[in-house]
Each structure stands twice: as C-alpha cells, then as structure tokens.
Target: Xaa-Pro aminopeptidase
Amino acid sequence: MSTDATTTTGSDQPLEERVNNRSQRPSSEAFKTFMASSWAPDTSELPGADGVAPYAAARRAAVSARFPGERLVIPAGPLKVRSNDTDYRFRPHSGFAHLTGLGLDHEPDAVLVMEPTDEGAGDNGSNHNATLYFSPMAGRDTEEFYSNARTGEFWIGPRPTLGLLQARLGLPTADLTQLEVAITKNAGVVELGGMRVRLLRDVDMNCDALVDTSRINTGVDLEVSDSLDGELTEALSEIRLVKDAWEIDEMKKSVAATINGFHDVVRSLDRALTHPRGERVVEGAFFARAREEGNDLGYDTIAASGNNATVLHWINNNGTVNDGELLLLDAGVEAESLYTADVTRTLPVNGTYTDVQRKIYQAVLDAADAAFAVAKPGTKFRDLHGAAIKVLAENLDAWGLLPVSLEEALSPEGQQHRRWMPHGTSHHLGLDVHDCAQAKAELYLDGVLEEGMVFTIEPGLYFKNEDLAVPEEYRGIGVRIEDDVLITADGCVNLSAALPRTPEAVEAWMAEIRNS
Ligand code: GLY
Ligand code: MN
Ligand code: MN
Model:
C-alpha cells in the first residue's frame, strides 16, 4: 500500500518523495470533496478516568517534589522505522508511560510538560501543573484521514482526541503545535531570571533540538544542562524502584499470562522434538499465547535447548530440541500497560531429568532459595547475589570443579566459580525488564530492599560443550531458574510461584500437561 500522491517524477524528484511513486490515489478535487463528506458524526461519550490516573498523578507529584521551580519535559518518543516506510509497533519511553499511565500505542511524538507553579500550588498540592501535548486524531474531513499512513484513521484506525485522553488521564491536553512555545517560553539562564528547563534526553530528537536551540539562543550552558538533564533521567528511574499497588497488580497479570505461555510451550514439545527448528516452535508457542491474550513480550524469548542453554542471551532460537536435553526457556509477557514479567524454567525435554541434570538443577534451586531467604526489607540488594552465589560455589567445590579452595574462590581476588555463572542474580523489574537502570548505585546495588520493590532472582550454572574445566558429563548443560519477587512488609512473595520449581514438581506438571 502506498501513502501519498506523487507530485514530481524523473531524476529531479527528491529521493524522499519516491516512496510514493507507487501511489495511485486520485488527486482530483471531486475525489477529495467526496472523501471528506458523508461520515457519521462521532456520538460516543467520553470515558471516565483510567484506573491508573490517580497513581500516575502521585508519581508526577514525586517528580515534582525533586525539581521545584523548573520546567520538566518528558517525551514519549517517535515512531521508530523498522525498514523503509514501515514502523515498529509504537511503545512509549517507560519514563513517559510511568508518569502518564499510557501504555501500548500511546502516543507517538507526545510530550508531557510539567510547568512549575508556586510551591504546593500545583496539581494535587505539588509544585507543577502537567499538560500532555500530542497530535490528536485528524477529522474525517481532512486529507490526513485517508492520506497519512502513519497517523490517518483510514490507515491505522482511530486515535485519541484531545478530549479523550484528557478524560482518561485526568490531565489537561493540548495540541502538539503548541509544544514549542510551551517548552521555550521564558526559558533561559536562571541567574538572569530565566526558567530552567530539564529534558528527558535521547528519547525524541525533535525535543532535544528544540531545547538545545532554545538554550543556545538564551545563553544557557549546554554542558551544565546535560548533567542537569541527567538528573531528571536518574530521578525517573529512581521513583520506579518502589512499585505502587496498581503496578503490582499489572505485574501479577503479566506473570500469570507468562505462566500460561509456559504451559503452552510444554504442550508444543512433541512438535518441537520433530521439527528442524524446534526452538522456534517453542518460541512461537509462547508468543502465540501472549498475543492471543492481548499481550506482547517484554524482551525476545530465549528458547535454548542443550548446549544453546549455556549462551546467556540465546535469542536465535534456531536449534533443534532433542530427547534427553534440557530446554531453558526465559520468557516474559508484557501487558498492554507495558509491565513485564521475566521468568525462566529449565525443563527436561522428555519430561524427566537425568541424574546429572537433576544434581545441577538442584544446586541452582538451592541458590535461588538462599536468595529468597534473605529477600526482605532491610537486606542490601547486593546481598541477594551474595547469598545465591555462595551456594553455587559450595556445590562447585563439592563436585571438585574449583581450581582453588572454596575460601579462595569466594574472596574478591578469586571468584573462579563465576566462570559458570558470569551474570548477576537479580535486577529490578517493571516497565523495563531491566528496570530502574539509571538509578544511582547507592539506591540500586547498594540500596536496601523496601516493601513494594519487584525484582528477579535468577541464579544459573552453564557448562559449555567446549568447557574442558569440567568432566564430560556436565558439558552441554545450562540451567537457570528465574522468579519474580515482590518485597512485602516482612518478607517477600514469589509472584511466579505458580510455575513449578522443584525437579519433582516440574516433572509432574509436564506429565499432567502432556497427558491431558
Ligand atoms: N531475560 C533477561 C534476563 O533475565 O535478565
Ligand atoms: Mn532477568
Ligand atoms: Mn530472564
């Protein structure tokens, strides 16, 4: 399908116009007039506020408290080109999604502007009034309606009007054409009476250019501004370290949908076993269930059988799935709200672990349980890893695999055991699979667990085919067990506990599904 009528042809025609050369859309006035007429009026009523609206307002208030007196500019980002004139499905920046409550498809090019007020005189007693700027759906009497393949209703279906998003979000909205003034008015050097503008950079090149031009024009130091912008990025990560009740509900939904996907993967194993790309059968089974339930993926699925399971981010998924191997499936459903799960199970393809597979699996499970045992308020985040890795090192020592004593391996100067688990045990989880990534180290790795934090516990052991430091029987075995964990007032909840974890429970669960 083509998007626009061609105006010039031949070698003089600008390259960017040539994408339209296949268009046969008429350009007659009669056509345009007829296209603009006889459409039923929109009589639908505006909806009430989304359930997320009060939570998003509280999140904006938390940002507001950090930056009184300063204008904050938080873009959703533009559509991203996949190839030529085809875009990826739109996903807004997670910081924007968090502060607006908008999820999938909403809203390319939108920008949230938080305008400072007198202290405490803003939205909900905060220091700012927020407005959402975006391009509302064009009317059916416009050419955009049928001629713009990126935004026109005839091409991509209805998009929100200003009134619709205002009603859903409980937030004033304004046309994107007013954004430049909103960002640049009275912006300038603070010492000279100008307004400081902080931008969530590297999300929308147009916003970056708008703000940078304004800074240059008003004599604001670009280098200093860069670091001030960085503090906004950091703040948007840090306010997501503790999830609110709405977010926790969304994550529970994502985990439940992920468990459904694992169920369908087990059902797909007989087909996977006979297929030249069995791992793709597994990947497809998980994805199909996610899509059928209205969801997407938070990251590319890792469907890794046999030695491929020892490749930490194996997303090629083009291998076979063979009888007697372990299948490592690391997959997470992302809900429409954009909250994602991140779960791994390592399954015996034929339904039963061999003795050596069971031994390695049990060591990884014991490591996970050691991390669970310290997952409570007051524990340092980094100690989750410490607890898990100690158990793994002890097992590796007991199996005679460490080239040095256990004590030496566990010392900072040693760490030989990390050869078989070079990744961390935990990361925060939420809108991004590796959530809160721009938070300061003292709030992340050296931070202390608090009620409402959600993270993974995901120890593993990976013995590659080529690993001459281990006996042959270990080679080609990769095991990871990954659960999603919510810190409560006095401990934690394993959000993914409904997916079997022990070897016996996994075997029984697989048998039940395959025999049903
Ligand atoms: N799925 C990526 C991770 O576990 O971090
Ligand atoms: Mn993970
Ligand atoms: Mn994972």
Summary: The chain has 15 helices and 17 strands. The pocket of manganese (II) ion (ligand 2) is lined by residues 342, 427, 456, 458, 482 (CB under 6 Å). The two ends are 45 Å apart (CA to CA). The chain has a mean pLDDT of 96.
